[in-house]
Amino acid sequence: MIELKNIEPLCSSRNYKIFQHPLDKLSILKVRVDKPVRNHLIPRYAERRYGNLRQWNREANEYLAALNRNVPEIERLAQFKGFAVTTLGPALVVEKLTGPDGQLAPTLETERVAAIGNLHKSKELRDELMELLDELERGRIIVGDLTFDNVVRAEERGGKLAIIDGLGERVLIPLTLLSDWAFRQSIKRRRKRMALGFGLG
């Protein structure tokens, strides 16, 4: 069991506390801190089986699918390294992506906000995001929860954007897995929604 109770997290969010892996400087531990939300009268199978860890099941499945297909676009994802038992509960072990200062990689949200009012920089960021979405589409990698906070600029990827969270489809019937058309439509909707976030019209 990995001792985390006396270690300060690198950062915290509504869902996670992120820790440096004490035995592996190239990995981080993501420990869930949110409470399970049950919105269904009859709990879904994944909810009954995995509880609050069902998102990890989806993420692991999507990463393994990309690994199985041996798609080069998997480089746009933080490497999935497995699970661990810690003194704060179950943890997801993932590759530590960093910025130029060696700290956790800056999110696209941070860069997007800093670029507000700078038309040239905003266009650059939008174009980089569209390039990332192009690669996800080529690799047929599903990111069901694609937000600016789930995308970072990683030194480990030569300064390119990479996905750190949100892999997999969250719906009961995953049409994006079953239909090429549904997958392309999903990517198209994400392109439009996220492009609007740069305020470029």
In a nutshell, what does this entry contain?
Helices cover 35% and strands 17% of the residues. The protein has 201 residues and is an alpha+beta fold.
pLDDT under 50 segments (min length 5)?
none
Question: How do the SSEs run, as a string of H and E?
Answer: EEEHHEEHHEEHH
Spatial sequence of strands, sheet with the most strands: 1-2-3-5-4
Report how far apart the termini are: 51 Å
Q: Which class of secondary structure composition applies to the elements?
A: alpha+beta
Describe the fold and architecture:
The chain starts with 10 loop residues before the first strand and ends in a 5-residue tail after the last helix. It contains 6 helices and 7 strands. It has 201 residues and is of the alpha+beta class. The chain is 35% helix and 17% strand. A 5-stranded antiparallel sheet has the order 1-2-3-5-4, with helices on one face.
